[in-house]
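Worked example

This section walks through a single chain of length 310. The input is the sequence exactly as stored; nothing has been trimmed or padded.
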Amino acid sequence: MNTELSNNKILNNSEDNLNSEIQTERSAERIQEDKEFVPVIVKRTDEAIRHPDDVLEKAIDEGLEQIRRPFISLILSSMAAGLILSFTAMAVAVIATFASKFNEPVILRISTALVYPFGFIICIISGTQLFTEHTATAVYPVLEGRAKIIHLFRLWLLVIIGNLAGAVLSAGLLTLADDVIQAEKGYIIIAHHLVSYSNISLIFSSILAGWLMALGGWLILATPPTISQIACIYIVTFLIGLGGLHHSIAGSVEMFTALFISSQFSISQTARFISLAITGNLIGGSIFVAILNYGHIRKTQEIEHDEQPV
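Given that input, the structure is written out below as tokens.
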């Protein structure tokens, strides 16, 4: 009897030891998992909120990458951007066609602004080269002294040529497909909006549009590649549409389409719009975003460096 009790006690102790060992192993695994999980959370938090210094460095690297791209790569990518923006022109024209039936300018302005960002979202997220993105981004390496201004002008020229070539092609496609799209009236309404202002008004409108687009490019660099980037693009381009501001490339698609589809517009009107819009977009992006952002961030870094104890 005593022997049996002794054996049971030994078995119970063995089971307790085994359970204790299993529990200890699981606890150790849980502790290890917790240790490994915390850095992941910290890393994601850091990625979600980037310091302006880091954004500037990223912008400089991005600008250098674009400046160093081969000729054919820039041309093809920028042509793709001009083609993609046809979806903005199409969406706005379709909405303008239907909204015009209400004969209410507020409805027309808001409804077209809601769909204006669609082509821009596709264009920017797909990584194609849009001129108004580079009015600021490509300036940073020049300000930093890591690229020459002639390289900046080369980039701008190639991207503009590619964007406009894509705009002409996409306008042709929209014209040929208009029997299906049925947005002729919308293209005419938009084109009248693009050319019916004085040179001064058009320049300042384009400056605001270029400013917003360059801000959008900065925000994209400041946010992780998630839905937040799409939100940034939507916000800035919605504001452009809501304000009726003039974007050189999207407006070029709209003007070329109106030129092809209607006899109300001339080549000289189209050329005037494009030249003024490009000039304004360039000023808005390079001065109001690139120079100001670079200046205030670098100045802050200098002050912080001077204040550090020797």
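What to look for: Residues 50-304 form a domain with the Glycerol uptake facilitator protein fold (CATH 1.20.1080.10).
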